[in-house]
Amino acid sequence: MSTSATEAATRLMLEGMVERAIGGDVLTEKDGGFLAVMSKGSSMVRQDIPAAFEMCGLLHHYLAKYPVQQANFESADVLLSPSVQYDPGRKAVVLLMQIEAETLQYVACAIADNLRSDKVKAMPGVLAIPFAIETFEGEQFLLPEWFVAFYVDGNEDQCVPLLTGRSVTDDQRFGDWVNIAVERMAVFGLPRSAAQEAMRRTARRE
After folding, report:
1. What CA–CA distance (Å, rounded) separates 51 from 112?
2. Domain total for the chain?
3. How far apart are CA 116 and CA 195, in angstroms?
4. What pLDDT sits at residue 55?
5. Which of 40, 78, 125, 132 is least enclosed, having the fewest CB within 10 Å?
6. Could you give the CA distance from residue 12 to residue 3 in angstroms, rounded to a whole number?
7. Residue 132: which domain range?
8. Half-sphere exposure of 76 (CA within 13 A, CB side)
9. Predicted confidence (pLDDT) at residue 1 exceeds the cutoff of 70
10. Which residue intervals of 64-175 are DSSP H helices?
C-alpha cells in the first residue's frame, strides 16, 4: 500500500473510532462510546466528560486538516509539528496541535481550564493530546488519556503536563500525577527528558 493510501486508510479508521467514541445514545447505551461509560461513573468521573469530549472533538476536527502519519513511539520521540501520529504496534494516537499566542483558552477551553498560569496559557506552542486504543470483547475503542502535554513555543525543553482526568486522583494509590504523566508520555513517544530533569532538580531541593 502506498504512503498516501496508508494515510487515507488510517485517517478513515480513526475518524470512525472518534465518531463511535463520542456518539451513540447515552440514555439507552446503544452504540455508546466513552460518554456512555463515563456518564455512569461517580460525580468526579462525570466532571471529566467535558475535557474528554473536547479531546475527541479536536482529534476529529484535525484529522481532516493535519497529516496523518504512522510512527513507532518506542524508537524515537515524535517531532513536535502539527500532525496526527498513530503507532499501530502500541495502539496509541497523538494529536499534535499548533497553538497560536492568546488562543489556547478559546480552541481548547476545557483543557485550558486545567492550566493555572495565565502567562503560560497565553503563550504559543504545541498541544499534545494522547489517546489509547483498547480492545474489549473483540472490538477496538478510542480512549482519551487523563493528561495532555503543552510544549511552550513548540520547544521540547518547555513541557507543561496538564491533568484532564481529575478522577484519577480520587484513587489514593495513584500518587503524584505529574511524575506518572511524565513517565507515561514515553508510551506516546512524547519528548520528556527536560521534564524528567526538572522533577529531579525539584526532588533534590526537597
Report:
1. 9
2. 1
3. 18
4. 95
5. 40
6. 14
7. 3-205
8. 6
9. no
10. 104-107, 109-112, 118-121
